[in-house]
């Protein structure tokens, strides 16, 4: 681990980022060149003390998980991410055609401008990599999971709480949709992939999944308009829009409501809840 070069790289990338680049407002009294350390720490979802020690050349060796969070927070390119990993004494993550946990700076810039909207970046396996505050208020923090549980499809069949965001009468439709999604992704990844391992685990753990898997349904059955619910705002009718990054194999999911509708009012309330939750976490 090269602490001096790591500290210099982090500081220069922080100073190169402007508040507008990450969806923050520039206050009239701002004198800092680039972002403040506390702003970068919040973007990376880590403590200010931890990030500050890295810039001061006295921090511990960051884990690969921490480095991935820093790469997203600093909006690094793939080349810059790989450089960051090497400076920290790690091997750069392998780049495979359809499997990457690194969100491109361009996609992160779009996400930053959707702060008042439920939106999140997901892999082809349904693993959430980044969320807006409104998305966290609706779905919970989906970036906290590890192992197979990172996949929303796996959680759907193994964790009853994963279904709470959808009305019970819609569960059969979503079960079919998640099964079809997993099958489609498995076809692109092959029998030795992580997707195949998840399928094996679900066949062993979930009779419902096993029954649906045996039907070999391949069509996409996800509705473009979904009913989602939240304990504080009730049921919302939301439209799903998708922006696909083919190079990274990732999808930006954005949820919106028809203007002037009751769902739009509830969605605005959800955004307030998400902002308050984010402020309390910081």
Automatic annotation (TrEMBL):
Gene Ontology MF terms: DNA binding
InterPro entries, alphabetized: Cro/C1-type_HTH, Lambda_DNA-bd_dom_sf, MLTR_LBD
Residues covered by the HTH cro/C1-type domain: 34-81
A Pfam family it matches: MLTR_LBD
Membrane-spanning parts: none
Record protein name field: Helix-turn-helix domain-containing protein
Native source organism of the sequence: Agromyces seonyuensis
């Amino acid at each position: 681990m090269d602490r001096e070069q790591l500290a210099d790289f982090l500081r220069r990338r922080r100073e190169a980022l402007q508040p507008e680049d990450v969806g923050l407002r520039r206050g009239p009294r701002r004198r800092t060149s680039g972002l403040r350390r506390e702003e970068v720490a919040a973007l990376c979802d880590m403590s200010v003390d931890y990030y500050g020690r890295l810039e001061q050349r006295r921090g511990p060796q960051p884990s690969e998980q921490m480095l991935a969070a820093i790469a997203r927070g600093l909006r690094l390119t793939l080349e810059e991410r790989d450089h960051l990993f090497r400076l920290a004494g790690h091997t750069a993550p392998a780049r495979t055609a359809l499997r990457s946990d690194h969100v491109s700076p361009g996609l992160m810039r779009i996400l930053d401008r959707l702060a008042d909207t439920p939106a999140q970046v997901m892999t082809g396996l349904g693993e959430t990599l980044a969320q807006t505050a409104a998305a966290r208020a609706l779905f919970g923090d989906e970036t906290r999971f590890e192992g197979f549980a990172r996949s929303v499809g796996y959680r759907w069949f193994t964790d009853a709480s994963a279904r709470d965001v959808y009305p019970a009468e819609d569960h059969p439709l979503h079960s079919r949709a998640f099964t079809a999604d997993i099958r489609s992704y498995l076809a692109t990844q092959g029998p030795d992939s992580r997707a195949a391992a998840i399928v094996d685990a679900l066949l062993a753990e979930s009779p419902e999944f096993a029954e649906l898997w045996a039907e070999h349904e391949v069509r996409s059955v996800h509705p473009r308009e979904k009913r989602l619910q939240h304990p504080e705002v009730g049921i919302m009718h939301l439209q799903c829009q998708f922006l696909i990054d083919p190079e990274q194999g990732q999808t930006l999911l954005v949820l919106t409501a028809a203007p002037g509708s009751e769902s739009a009012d509830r969605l605005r309330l959800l955004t307030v809840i998400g902002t308050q939750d984010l402020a309390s976490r910081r």
